[in-house]
Design a protein that fits this description.
mainly beta; 4-stranded antiparallel beta sheet; Methylamine Dehydrogenase, Chain H; Thrombin, subunit H
């Protein structure tokens, strides 16, 4: 179990496992049905973990931390496979594998994006500069040829993943700041189900309740309570039937959507 707030969660590609990163500086892997810890804790980071993601084949987990580094772990054994990847001068706030699993994109509070070789840990491109504020989210396009990134203050950039060139941006599309960015569903304070049916967000005044809306009608489908502190991360299972939340109350909740 985590001993401090859970900052981030992610489903494995097949939906059978969950990875979580915590302020206690560890990564845990959970069985998505039983809720039992099946691997971990993975230890190595020297500060809180802000972002985790599975590789496309589900065999590896990447984690990014306030300690400015990225680590890649064996998802079953917890062995450190690659890293620490060093270069960022401030906290790593978001990471994403490319579709073929060969590269990782990372965003940082230092306002930059970097692209890494996921096998060797070598920096391929970066720092990619263009954001006027801290980068909070990164994601690869489905064909892995583009990377999109967003800052908390709302600027969006699109990069050529092969050359590192800025394709467009920074464009200020969100005047109140961006909560999420993804070509496909991503783990953030808000999320869209893979089938496009549901939108979920922690939108009440306490940030402890997750609301789910029907994306076609805009009607509120239901509210999910249970956390006793701020909800830090929300994501859907690959089949869009379950929703996964983590919180500063040190817990992870899995709920089946039966609206």
């Amino acid at each position: 179990m985590h001993t401090s707030g859970v900052e981030c969660v992610a489903f494995s590609p097949n939906g059978r496992r969950i990875a979580s990163g915590s302020r206690d500086m560890t990564v845990l892997v959970w069985h998505a049905v039983t809720g039992k810890v099946v691997a971990g804790p993975f230890k190595g980071h020297t500060n809180k973990i802000w972002t985790v993601c599975f590789s496309p084949d589900g065999k590896q987990i990447a984690s990014g931390s306030y300690d400015k580094t990225i680590r890649i772990w064996d998802a079953q054994t917890g062995a450190l496979l690659v890293g620490p990847l060093s270069g960022h001068t401030e906290a790593v706030s978001s990471i994403a594998f490319s579709g073929d699993g060969t590269r990782i994109a990372s965003g940082s509070w230092e306002k930059t994006v970097r692209i890494w070789n996921a096998k060797s840990g070598r920096l391929v491109h970066g720092p990619l500069e263009g954001h006027p504020h801290a980068v909070r989210y990164v994601a690869f396009s489905p064909d892995s040829r583009r990377i999109i990134s967003a800052s908390l203050l709302g600027h969006v950039c699109i990069w050529n993943a092969d050359t590192g060139a800025l394709v467009s941006g920074p464009s200020l599309q969100h005047a109140e700041g961006a909560l999420a960015v993804a070509f496909t569903p991503n783990t953030t304070w808000s999320a869209v189900s893979p089938d496009g049916k549901w939108i979920a967000a922690s939108a009440d005044a306490t940030w402890r309740t997750v609301n789910v809306w029907d994306s076609k009608t805009g009607q509120l489908a239901g509210s999910l309570d249970g956390h006793t502190d701020i909800v830090a991360s929300i994501t859907f299972s690959p089949d869009s039937r379950r929703i996964l939340t983590s919180s500063y109350d040190k817990t992870i909740h899995i709920r089946t959507l039966d609206f």
